[in-house]
Amino acid sequence: MIPEERLQELLEQATVDCYDEEEAFAGVLISVDENVAWPLPAQLTGMPVEVLGLDESASNLRRGIQARIRRQGKEYRASLSDLTFGDIDESSAEWLALYRWWAEGFSSYADEMTGVPFAIGEEWSSKWQARPYIEQGLTNFCRLDVCNIGGLSEAMKVAGWSESHYIDIMPHNPLGAVCTAATIHMSFAVNNFAWVEINPGINESAPDLFPVQLTRKGASFPLPTRPGLGVEFDEEAVADHPHSLTDMPHFHKPDGSHTNW
Predict the structure, then answer these.
(1) Helix/strand/coil (H/E/C) assignment for every residue in 125-146
(2) What's the angle, vertex CA 54, arms to CA 132 and CA 74, rounded to 5?
(3) From residue 193, how far is each of 129, 131, 217, 228, 256 by CA, in Å?
(4) Percentage of residues in the chain with pLDDT exceeding 70?
(5) What is the pTM of this model?
(6) Domain around 122
(7) Of 51, 186, 197, 211, which one is least surrounded by beta carbons within 10 A?
(8) Last residue of a domain, one of 70, 93, 112
(9) What is the maximal distance between C-alpha atoms in the chain?
(10) For residue 39, is the peptide bond before it cis, meaning its omega torsion is within 30 degrees of 0?
């Protein structure tokens, strides 16, 4: 166990001349990367991996520090907080402990930075990506997307996980009649449902492809009663909609950086 006084000393060293949380995060990231003797052996969800270093481009204040890992010859990315390190050199152990200590402290006051609730999760592709936001209390609403997160089974796991941390779900739902039907079924099946995203121009479109789909009544959907998802797909109508590649919009922030459209 590294004394808190030593961790505070390392934090002051990493964040000297930093004036806000983003600069402090950058200072901690750079200091950890420079003072840890990569590569290092570690475990991720109980499986052995090799940690090659940090992925600065994928790391940010809300996502935390992301690490580049290798398992069975393939490289992946994982949250540094999700990795467990064993017997490593003293300097590496100190700096890795510093990041975990700092990240835990940051999450405890993250809600104090703004009175606006956080709703996060539409880009999660598995329960493992959802884990730090749920367990560290970094979101007020879970914006899981049934299609992105891996289907209804994975979505139900994340919904239950969120419920155990008193987080309501507010599903992301932008992909048409099938996604809407699956999302509505899931929403009826959980106890912590808040709201669901509906865009009539997308969610209730293409009646020739989906002649039978869920019907909204006012601002809500009634409980589906038809077999399966309650959607019928006309395979012959597909010929009237040939596939074409479309470049999605490219939005920018005031400083010129890209942002999610």
Answers:
(1) CCHHHHHHHHHCCCCCEECCCH
(2) 90
(3) 20, 18, 18, 21, 37
(4) 95
(5) 0.60
(6) 117-259
(7) 211
(8) 112
(9) 70
(10) yes
